[in-house]
Amino acid sequence: MLSRQRRLRADRDWDALFQRGFGVSGPVVALRVCATPGRRRLGVSVGKKLGGAVERNRIKRRLRAIALARWESLPEADMALLARPGAAAADFAALDAAVMELADRARKRIP
């Protein structure tokens, strides 16, 4: 489980992320990033179009588990993982590969 210090929680933080940050996306997951040197925080969002509550929660748990396992590989930034329609059908390995590919692309764009 992500600790309180590692989660993106406040509305103002989400707003700042979408106003000042940039995004990279793939067919399964999109990643929104706003550089914050010395700190990593993560938020996860799964829309209702992806299924019922059980399916959405499953996707969120998988994305959080991937982020926690790969925490040091993620860029120092505020980040939001946004599930896309392909996430519901993707297995854990496919989600993991997608998240890491997006993290690498985002890291290259951070000054």
Total strands: 4
Low-confidence stretches: none
What portion of residues is helical?
Answer: 40-55%
The rough form would be described as globular
> What is the radius of gyration computed over CA atoms, rounded to a whole number of angstroms?
13 Å
**Head-to-tail CA distance between termini:** 29 Å
In spatial order, strands of the major sheet run 1-2-4-3
SSE-based structural type: alpha+beta
Mean pLDDT: 95
Run of helices and strands: HEEEHEH
Helical stretch tally: 3
Beta strand %: 15-25%
The main sheet comes to: 4 strands, mixed
Describe the model.
The chain is α+β, with helices and mostly antiparallel strands. The chain has 3 helices and 4 strands, in the order αβββαβα. A 4-stranded mixed β-sheet has the order 1-2-4-3, with helices on both faces. A hairpin with a 3-residue loop joins β1 and β2. α2 crosses α3. The termini are far apart.
Short summary:
The protein is of the alpha+beta class.
Map the helices and strands:
Blueprint: H1 11-20, E1 22-25, E2 29-35, E3 41-45, H2 53-69, E4 77-83, H3 92-109
Parallel strand pairs: 3-4
Antiparallel strand pairs: 1-2, 2-4
Helix pairs in contact: 2-3
